[in-house]
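Lab notebook, bench 4. Still working through the backlog of constructs that have no structural model yet. Next entry is a single chain of 109 residues. Request: give me the structure tokens for it.
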Amino acid sequence: MLILTCPNCGITAEETEFHAGGEAHLTRFGPGASDDEFEQYLFMRDNPKGVHFERWRHVYGCGKWFHAARDTMTLEIFGTYTAQTSTVPQDIIDKITDRRPDWQPPETA
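Model written out:
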């Protein structure tokens, strides 16, 4: 069971209070985008073994979206941050590299 903290309202709860919304930090394409760009956005997702950045919604709380950094193998949560944050906060990157010295931040982090 995952234990997440909503960065918007500060509530810490089990994952059943939240809803996973897929990969975080995706580049969205609007009108005028090529078919290849739209296909990349719509269908191509990372599914790493290890550190992953995800979107979550606090369904049974404030209802707001946020991002979480977690390890898909161990289910360890490295931290959460608001969805309005376009890059991963440095304190979360530091926490990940402390626990996973070989990990490299993705280009979008």
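Notes after review: The chain has a mean pLDDT of 91. The longest strand covers residues 51-57. Flag for follow-up if needed.
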